[in-house]
Amino acid sequence: MSGNLVETLIGAVVLLVAGFFLAFAYSTGGVGSGRISGYELQARFNRADGLVIGGDVRLSGIKIGTITKQSLDPKTYDAVVTFTVDSRYELPEDTALKIASEGLLGGNYLSVEPGGSDKMLKPGSFVQHTQGSVNLMDLIGQAIFSATGAGGSKDKGEDATLSPLPKAN
User: Fold this and answer.
1) How far is CA 37 from CA 34, 45, 66, 101, in A?
2) Do 129 and 99 meet the contact criterion of CB atoms below 8 Å apart?
3) For position 69, what pLDDT does the model report?
4) Residues 6+ apart with CB under 8 A from 108
């Protein structure tokens, strides 16, 4: 009987430690504070690849907002992205947004580039200046095809002549 009691106590300690780690990860990971309260803005993009709901809105690399909704405009087929911006930051009307990448393997986020206008965006308004995401595979394809056709004189119908390498002494 004492063996069952010891096993039960060890199981309870394991569950207690697991609960402690779960609470610690929840509080330090910022899971509960994922959304930033503030005012809501919208933007239209021709491509919104890689954006996710809950993704970052960054200004100078600092998170100032969160993506809250994505939809497709049935008339223009543009991606409409709704996001919140912390109320501490007022953005000028000529602010520009672009979808930027965190790196080759990282996700995408909205990068905010404030303009110089004296008028500020009102909650619920659209940001007019946007740049959609860039398809990495298209860029690689362009680089490969431009490199194969980069013979210069070969495009003009002339033969490309290679000069011999100097001999090593």
Assistant:
1) 10, 24, 9, 24
2) no
3) 95
4) 49, 50, 51, 55, 99, 100, 101, 102, 133
